[in-house]
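Weekly puzzle thread! Below is a chain. First person to post its structure in token form gets bragging rights.
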Amino acid sequence: MLQHTPAVFGSASAGDPYLPASGNGGYTVEHYDLELDYRVATNRLTATATITARALTGLGRFSLDLAGLSVDRVTVNGAAPVKTTHTARKLVLTPAVALAAGEPFEVVVRYRGAPHPVRSHWGEVGWEELTDGVLVAGQPSGAPSWFPCNDHPSDKATFRIQLTCEAPYTVVSNGPVVARSTRSGRTTWTFDVREPMAAYLASVQIGRYRRHDLTAAPVAHSVFYPPALARQVAVDFARLGDMISVFSAAFGPYPFPAYSVVVTADDLEIPLEAHGLGVFGKNHVDGMHGSDRLIAHELAHQWFGNSLTLTRWADIWLHEGFACYAEWIWGEASGGLSAHASAVLHRAELDRLPKNIVVGDPGPHDMFDDRVYKRGALALHAVRQAIGDEAFFTALRAYTRTHRHGSVTTADLLGCFRVASGVGVADKIIARWVSAKSLPQLQPGAAAPLEP
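Winning reply:
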């Protein structure tokens, strides 16, 4: 007798306590195909999202994240749902035929509106109008501001992003440009992302940019910038290829086909990263290498955050601790302070701050607290001191290779340290620096300089 899996309702949350309203249960997304038609002058978006997914259980109802936009039409496997409900943050669908466990399915959503950022604990995130263009900064919960998605970093998918806008503007997005055409004063740009990517890392940047291709070694990298900033950009990003080389030696090969930097014509509070992209404001370029630390930080996120993406937001130190430590590695490689001197300096600064958060689970309000960044970096440096450079960097390269384009936890990192060092010393060090509030001491003596 055939056994049928009962249809269940997919949860309207991924179950992550840091963002309890984000993400959805009952399925996993395999691919997003986004066709976007955007009017810069009026901030009007007309779009179609085709989402290829797979049911994880018998599924009678499921939801997508979508905020601030109007839905015109939805189909599931080509048929209209028997019920569609769109709340402030969720698009809830009851398909005409319940989905079987393991069944692939397709959702097509046609939608429109004036996209704008969504509010969060960390300010407004997502689609944001610039003075003359657009910036998309999705971390951690801004992806639903411009497309329907399963907005949790553990559900990574491939993407095709096609955007049409006025011809004078340049569009930069994730992945290589695979097609571009202009008709009637409007240009269509198509980007192809073949590596699995978290929804919050999807991005489009629109502006009146000039493109400058830097050297293709060790990987192709380009800068997009307002023409008025040409001199400053030429100086400040001249060392980008050297940074990529240093980090490739330390962390393993750069994980994507190329790297692009966008410098906006507006000031930005902080730089940001997306999959294959780093984005800076005009206030971050001065023609005197004043932002080298920030450039190194955003580049390092291509390994730690974009290729290796946390499974749960509580492990944010796996992104920010590594990116901060990369700043110290670059400082040493470029003739500045050694990584150990930077570690000593920042430990002293931390000692003057409250010791009231656990870096390995800081809570949603303190996810992006500077103590998470610095203590995470200090934890890595302490492990490096204890096990030596050969084992330390062998472990990091194994970590990025084993989990390339995947989802990671602190346990995954510790497993690589155990294999490389043959002992569990890293477990104890990470526990002291990451899992406790008290601030440990660093060992005396510097780690050996990194050989690029």
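Puzzle host: Confirmed. Bonus trivia for everyone else. The CA atoms of residues 383 and 428 lie 9 Å apart.
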